Amino acid sequence: xxxxxxxxxxxEAWNPLWKGYQGYYEVDLSETTDxxxxxxxxxxxxxxxxLVCEDDEARLIGFTTYVFHAHTWQPEPRCYLxxxxxxxxxxxxxxxxxLIEAVYDKADEHGCAQVYWLTQDFNEAGRRLYDRVxxxxxxxxxxR
Length: 144
Fold this sequence. Notes:
- The chain is of the alpha+beta class.
- The protein has a single domain (about 1-135), classed as Gcn5-related N-acetyltransferase (GNAT) (Aminopeptidase, 3-Layer(aba) Sandwich), CATH 3.40.630.
- Helices cover about 35% and strands about 20% of the residues.
- The protein contains 4 helices and 5 strands.
- A 5-stranded mixed beta sheet has the order 1-2-3-4-5, with helices on both faces.
- Helix 3 (about 95-110) crosses helix 4.
- The radius of gyration is 15 Å and the shape is globular.
- It starts with a strand and ends in an 11-residue tail after the last helix.
């Protein structure tokens, strides 16, 4: 397994992962997919950025996206992990953890004081992992 920055050549292999991610969360982001990919390939310093995980045969089996941003509570930036997905057949093999840890490394390189993310309450498998690699906070999300 290898984690690396996504490249232009990954688009075709990334598409099914992106569709699988949308299916899991029951959303349709097809209208923004081309724009999303373009922004991932040409991100400003703060992102969005994309890391991919490939197996021993160089097939993409997971990805994560993240951004860096300023915050009012401390001078150091924070890192928001936006998306995380692994193929269903590869779950439970440490890929999600490795992708999260790779984001931690990128956040450390960027001088971030914190890495955080959101998930759906029904994401039980993901939450079991998140409970091992991070601390659950008491924040509740509101959205317009």
